[in-house]
Amino acid sequence: MVYRNPTGEIGMRTKLRKSIELFAGAGGLGIGLAQAGFEPQIAVENDKWCCDTLRNNHKILGVNCEIENTSSGIIENDIRNIDFCEFENVVDLVSGGPPCQPFSLAGRHRAYEDARDLFPEAVRAVRESRPKAFIFENVKGLTRSKFSDYFSYIQLQLEHPEIMTNNDEDWHDHFKRLQQHHTSSSRFGLHYNVVTKVLNAANFGIPQKRERVIFVGFRDDINARWSCDDGPFTEESMVWDQVFGSYWEKHEIPKKDRILNYRSLLIAKRLSRDEKPKTLPWRTIRDAISDLPNPEYENNIRFPDHRLQSGARSYAGHTGSYIDEPSKTLKAGVHGVPGGENMIRWANGSVRYFTVRESARIQTFPDNFKFYGAWSECMRQLGNAVPVALASCVGESVNLRLTSTEI
């Protein structure tokens, strides 16, 4: 896999390819894939505020940049109403993040019984457009043991998208037919080779401990030979830099504020000054936001959406994210903002809410990306987003494998 450094530079040049973006949200996955060389022909999203954000940032997302009406590629509609047949053999990639609430640890865990489970629509988009590859992502909760059969069912649907459900057939029976087809010696129809992987964003240089499962598939006539490693950034290296390295001096932090949590102290006990880890250190919240002005005292117009939101409080189970570590997973909805987890926790134990701009930095959105809606709405968009840099890393690796098959 090719990794981006914090400035977003790409290690290798890849071909510009056409794509379709589903469940686009605020655009984190789409922006990252655009940086990796994928040009979305359409971006489908049903939420009004997300669509306002997408339309007003279309140049960053890259939707239909070559035509005069640059916002026309953003479709505000239910994906169930979209016909993807016109894109058959036109796009190289279909990507998206089907709604995660049916599988989220913070949700009701209803999975296939939840009307928001739109993985079948992702499969339909693949079936109708027949891309060379696809990238889908979802919450790590999807891989929990209680969802194991349904997780396998999703993967088999993606591998054999033309094996559709019959009328009145429940998912268990469809699952059995897919298994039979998958193990048959004479398989027919459209087929994809699929790899699934749980990735921690912090391991890819993102200042957030956010775990997501990705589904990457290549059409079986594409000899891609793709795999994904765990990333070059580690917690161990971060702790070494804070114990023996220059982390605190770089940020000019007084000794009284140099605090390690219990886990870091345990890691520090097994480290040696003379044996620096070969990996890169996890990036911390301080690494990400240290150049932003303090929103408690000023609002720098160079950084949009950097305004203080009052009312943050800490309580059991919701203590915020310590500034000298990657943040906890940014959350959306009732388990996020009012729940108190989208907060900075300082060395003295005090907390305040992240500003929208700080949250965008944590999700690695560009500073010129403007979010639309009230503070709680913007935080909801960010809590549901894919970190841009993580999407870019995965997209770059997929584009490189596609390119290698054409040489």
UniProtKB/TrEMBL annotation:
One Pfam entry name: DNA_methylase
Name of the molecule in the record: DNA (cytosine-5-)-methyltransferase
Organism: Saliniramus fredricksonii
Keywords attached to this entry: Methyltransferase, Restriction system, S-adenosyl-L-methionine, Transferase
UniProt GO MF annotations: DNA (cytosine-5-)-methyltransferase activity; DNA binding
Species lineage: Bacteria, Pseudomonadati, Pseudomonadota, Alphaproteobacteria, Hyphomicrobiales
GO BP annotations, alphabetical order: DNA restriction-modification system; methylation; negative regulation of gene expression via chromosomal CpG island methylation
Family: Belongs to the class I-like SAM-binding methyltransferase superfamily. C5-methyltransferase family.
InterPro entries assigned: C5-Methyltransferase, C5_DNA_meth_AS, C5_MeTfrase, C5_meth_CS, SAM-dependent_MTases_sf
PROSITE patterns: C5_MTASE_1, C5_MTASE_2, SAM_MT_C5
Active site: C100
PANTHER family per UniProt: CYTOSINE-SPECIFIC METHYLTRANSFERASE (PTHR10629), DNA (CYTOSINE-5)-METHYLTRANSFERASE 1 (PTHR10629:SF52)
EC nos: 2.1.1.37
Class of the enzyme per the UniProt entry, highest EC level: transferase
Reaction it catalyzes: a 2'-deoxycytidine in DNA + S-adenosyl-L-methionine = a 5-methyl-2'-deoxycytidine in DNA + S-adenosyl-L-homocysteine + H(+)
Superkingdom, natural source: Bacteria
